[in-house]
Amino acid sequence: MLEASTATTTATLATPPRRNAVWARLRRNPEFWIGAVLVGFFLLITAWPSLISGLFGHGDPRACDLSDSRGAPDLAAGHPFGFTIQGCDLYASVVHGAANSIIVGITVTLGTLVIAIALGLLAGYYGGWIDTVLSRVSEIVVSVPLLLGAVLVLNSVQTRNVWLVSAVLIAFSWPTAMRVMRTSTISVRSRSFITAARSLGLRDWRIMLTHVAPNTVGPVIVLATLQVGAVIASEATLTYLGIGLQAPALSWGLQLSQAEPYFASAPHLLYAPAAALTLAVAGFILLGEAIRQAGFHSTNSA
Amino acid sequence: MHPVLNRLVQAVIVFFGTSLLVFLAVFALPGDPLGTLAGDAQLTDTVRRNLEERYHLNEPVLAQYGHYLADLFRGDFGVTISGESVGNILANAWPITAQLALTAWIIELVIGIGLGALAALKPGGAFDRFATSTTILLLAVPTFVLAFFAQQVFGLRLGWFPVAGAAAGWPVAFLLPAACIAALGIGPIARLTRTSMLQTITADYVRTARSRGITPWQLHTRHVLRNAIMPVVTYLGLDLGALLGGAVLVEGIFNLPGIGRALFTAINTQQGSVVVGIVTAGVFVVLIANLLVDLLHRALDPRIGKETSNA
After folding, report:
1. Taking the model in full, what pTM does it have?
2. With an 8 Å Cβ cutoff, are A155 and B36 in contact?
């Protein structure tokens, strides 16, 4: 969509980063491949957890026997990571725990993108009092540290699910991307193709969506890919603190907070969820970083 | 308007805005604010009435906000359900958190600037690539996971550092938890230092200095690094919020009696009024720190005010 609409409106302007050139750079970057494989794997087990959760044993994170509580890993018996406090198979729990982390990561990123693009376009395109109000509001929200703000709101809610946690994370994380969007919109606003579109009598919303946005969303999307990992870490952190997802939800943050009191006697309870969380965050960060580098070089040379 | 005055006015607007945001998040969201403030405690009618009076809940929302602001200006951050002043809790806990944040800041700065400056000496070289991948890996490990394993390995197994508590005093008791918080800041600082040094190296005054024949060491420390450090100073101010967030986690795990652990305990024992008081104080500390860093930045670099006065 990006390529097609820019081609019709800005044929004579500087060419946007070529898809081929970006892909060529990505392809040579090992970070990209490691990130892509990790992200692909976690997306796969989000969609079909049963695909690999049954590889060793019964694969059901809800089939628990309290007499197995904190049992040690036993590959032969079909429990490679051991048992949780409640005696559930830890391997199946960790595999099924991916979904919540990934869903929060993607929901928050998409939500942040939509809000940031919409508000950034409005502020940058119209300027004036709209810009003043939106910029002040973004300054206010950005000065509340994410973790403190989320603690404040989530602490006063009794039942919390994936969507609520996502909404709160979105509410406190849109300003950074919105400012990037605003700046790039301002830089495009006075270009001749916008003036041309305006003199043709196109409506403002149409100019913003079909002429401004395609030329300005690049940096915001890159910023967003870089943030997916941080969002996943934030969800686990909030859940670990006791104000994110609640049992019986399956979540790495929950598994870690339940295992923490036993970390001296049963450290194996911490290893698997911590490793899964770290690998998921690392995958998204590596992928985002590779995309940033590939995009950054091409905009520089354009 | 004078740029500094402009910045102060802006800070005041943000102050009122954030206080309104905090207030709305607690008292105006649908639900029972008293239930939130009391948490698990059973509310007798007398306590309920006292709380209603304490938080002026029977008055209009705007009046409630006015009272809330007036309390803040008096340094009154509310009381726990048993009547202890949250201000007292804060006063006892802040020194610990300040020591922790300061230690984390120092670690972040030394390692971050060191990595960034060395990487900038030979961009694309082996050390540059090593520094980049290290900083990405540091970003990938969530703070509390890092804290668990640092505690396990360096505290419990190797016994190099105290496992928990602040009994050993500064800096020994703070090094391990501070390093865990600092890990997230090292990457951005290293990257900022690297980029900004690479930009500075091509500046005219650096070429002039080089042509005078000074040693590369003098060139890099005296001229390049000193001027390239500016964006890092700004970042350090902005990073305080993240440091406080990290402190919440790490103080809970390492059992340091700072505001983070107080907040952690308050969340787990469902003492809403303490949570609100601590978060409010935290937000304002971050606001004031950002303002100070900004003013300091202007004082050090007179060009700043001129660029942004029309923004």
Report:
1. 0.81
2. yes
